[in-house]
C-alpha cells in the first residue's frame, strides 16, 4: 500500500484482508498479525482500527453489517414500486433483494462466515451481544418490510400472518446461510437461490388471480 492513501480506501483494504483470513482461519483464530500480513501492512498501522482480538472481532462484524446495508440500499433503489410490475418480476426482485443475505458468491460467503463466527462467539461473550442482536433484529425487520411490500402490491395470498411468515422466512435465510457455508458441496449457490424463490412463490397469489398480475 502507498504511504499516503485515502482512509476509506485503506479501511476497505483492511476489511478485505480481514475477511479473507476469517474465511481461512475462523474469526476467533484470526490474529492482528495474520491480518497485517494478509494486507501487507505494518501491524502498528492496524492499531488505528483495533487494539485487541475483541476489537478485531467487533470491527469485522460491524464492517459486515455496513457492507450488507450499503448493498441493500442500492438494491432498494433498483426495485422501485413493486405494484407496477408483473407477478413473476415482483417475486424475482424480492428474491434477489433477500439473496443479498445469502452466501451466493465469494464476497457474500465471506460476510456470512463472519456473521456465523461472530454470533457463535456472542453466545458466550456478552461484549458481543449488542451487535449480534442488532444483526438478528435487522434481518427480521428487513424480511418483514419485503413481505409487507409484496402484500401491499397484491402479490401475497390473502390471510397470511405477516408476523409468522416473517419468522419462517428469516429462519429459512438463516438455515440456508448456515448450511451453504458449512456444506457448500451439498448446498450450492443456485440451489440456495432456488429454495428462496420457491418459498416466496408458495406465499404468492396464484398466477391468473385478480390482482396477481398486470
Automatic annotation (TrEMBL):
Location of the DNA-binding region in this protein: 31-50
Single GO molecular function: DNA-binding transcription factor activity
Cite the InterPro entries for this sequence.
BetI_C, DNA-bd_HTH_TetR-type_CS, Homeodomain-like_sf, HTH-type_TetR-like_transc_reg, HTH_TetR, Tet_transcr_reg_TetR-rel_C_sf
The residues covered by the HTH tetR-type domain are: 8-68
Q: Which UniProt keywords apply?
A: DNA-binding, Repressor, Transcription, Transcription regulation
The record's listing under Pfam families reads: TetR_C_6 (PF13977), TetR_N (PF00440)
User: Which SUPFAM superfamilies does the record associate with it?
Assistant: Homeodomain-like, Tetracyclin repressor-like, C-terminal domain
The name of this protein is TetR family transcriptional regulator
Q: Which organism is it from?
A: Streptomyces kasugaensis
The root-end lineage is: Bacteria, Bacillati, Actinomycetota, Actinomycetes, Kitasatosporales
